[in-house]
User: What shape does this take?
Amino acid sequence: MSDQQFDVIVIGGGPAGYHAAIRAAQLGLKTACIDAWAGKDGKQALGGTCLNVGCIPSKALLDSSKQFYNIAHNLPVHGISVDNAKVDLGTFIGRKDKIVKQFTGGVAQLFKANKITSFFGKGKLLKGNQVEITGNDGAKQTISATNVILASGSVPIELPFAKFDGKHIIDNAGALDINEVPKRLGVIGAGVIGLELGSVWRRLGAEVTVLEALPDFLGAADADIAKVALKEFKKLGLDIKLGAKLAKAEVKKNEVHLTYTDSDGEHSLVVDKLLVAVGRRAYTDGLLSEDCGVKLDERGRIAVDDHCHTGVDGVWAVGDAVRGPMLAHKGFEEGIAVAEWIAGKSGHVAYDTIPWVIYTEPEIAWAGKTEKQLKDEGVPYKVGTFPFAAIGRAVAMNEAVGMVKMIAHAETDRILGVHMVGPGVSELIAECVVAMEFKGSAEDMARIMHAHPTLSEAVHEAALSVDKRAIHKGN
Assistant: This one.
């Protein structure tokens, strides 16, 4: 027998889960959320991976490391010199921790304001939409609801021959709490996490070697954008080895001895710390009872339909634990949409225009189709590009690196994809997503006035370039 009855129970307080809980409560549904994440103080820390060891803390360290890097590498061109700049890692990490606590505490306050009942522990879905909660002290209780939303998130993939030990071989969480700049940092995987965290420690002085098993750099991004980005990362000092497959990692005398293979054969590499960032997997351990009826797909994700429904009456799943990209904002929208569907409203998630961002230096962002995808699909298209080197604001900022690439349908002119690498593109991609959501054309974007001087002019000129009428470059 359940101790308490709710309209909605959300298992997981990460981005997808807490958005679902807040929206459900806004719609007048009696809502509970169960989450087991504990902060450094041992207390519940809502926000999941994103707020605790992902999106927010990594951006805090990226910004701090950028400030330090700028002192030596970018300020002199402005006529500003600073001698003997140093990093106090205690303050460096402490600032990140303070930001994390601010935002996790903020979610707790939002729960309180929306009258959401929060449970600190691990939730398990039982038959009949009951949920068993196991507290961190081992105590159990059972609650039930008309609807249960599974938002259990994801965890780093661990390699069997390079298991995490928290000291020498680390995951993304470990890379956020290194207490001394490593002389040599190895990174396995040239994806978002590997590049962002590798960049943080490279800026602070570490020698960073990135081993990427795939032969192409950033295969998910447009090839032209990836090419520019790779060139800039190498300028930063990241030693990126493509087609390099890790075969062995052994800890010996406070060092990690790596063996990897590439087209030239077998090689060895010794590093002080090894960050393994080869991807993440859906976290469903202990989430489902055998008789609850919810199924997993071939990749261990919770199987759902186009409306995030599991096929079991009243049971839904959202975020990293289901199909689609593991992006916080994708989880946001799924959580909100499910809450609205439960309340009988018209929820919606636009999967075709999900923006992707890599917060490196320079930043990388895109939405929609790549040129290769359109070629493979046989879709006729036309392309416009524009470099930041011809944008006055970028030159004035001493960040005139990268480009904007816009792809439109060759017959209808509808924008099919926009791809960027350069300063501030994490923000510039938003207007392109809006245009694509409204089924806008390159002509629409070309006719919209953009302020001068701004970085956004690169988007405007790229749109003009689609029809070979860019003003500030040859066509």
